[in-house]
């Protein structure tokens, strides 16, 4: 069993050829007509909006002397914004 090794350029060319065939096959498939899923995080729940809400929650929490930390403030902010957006 004396296999001759292919040069690296030939291996790359073979891999590119296989990849092109795979991409072409998948590109020809029609798009599914299924209903589009709702995004998990609507645009109202951007990082900045969550951060801002968490900031105000933490200020209020400190003002009232309630226990908590940054993580609980962040989770509460996400929860509030998702509820306002109508996402369960």
Contiguous low-pLDDT stretches (5 residues minimum) are: none
Strand runs, count: 0
Measure the end-to-end span: 63 Å
Residue share in helices?
Answer: 55-70%
* Outline: elongated
Structural class: mainly alpha
Number of helices: 3
Major sheet: none
Q: Using only CA atoms, what is the Rg?
A: 26 Å
SSE arrangement, N to C: HHH
Please describe what this structure looks like.
By secondary structure, the protein is an all-alpha fold. The protein has a domain at 45-88. It is 61% helix and 0% strand. It contains 3 helices and no strands. It has helices at residues 8-27, 47-64, 70-85. It is elongated and about 75 Å long.
Brief characterization of the structure:
It contains 3 helices and no strands. It is mainly α and 88 residues long. The radius of gyration is 26 Å and the shape is elongated.
List keywords for this structure.
mainly alpha, 3 helices, 88 residues
Helix and strand layout, with pairings?
Elements: H1 8-27, H2 47-64, H3 70-85
């Amino acid at each position: 069993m004396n296999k001759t090794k292919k040069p690296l350029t030939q291996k790359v060319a073979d891999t590119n050829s296989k990849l092109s065939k795979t991409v072409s096959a998948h590109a020809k498939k029609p798009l599914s007509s299924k209903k589009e899923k709702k995004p998990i995080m609507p645009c109202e729940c951007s990082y900045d909006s969550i951060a801002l809400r968490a900031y105000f929650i933490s200020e209020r929490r400190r003002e009232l002397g309630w226990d908590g930390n940054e993580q609980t403030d962040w989770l509460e902010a996400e929860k509030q914004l998702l509820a306002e957006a109508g996402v369960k």
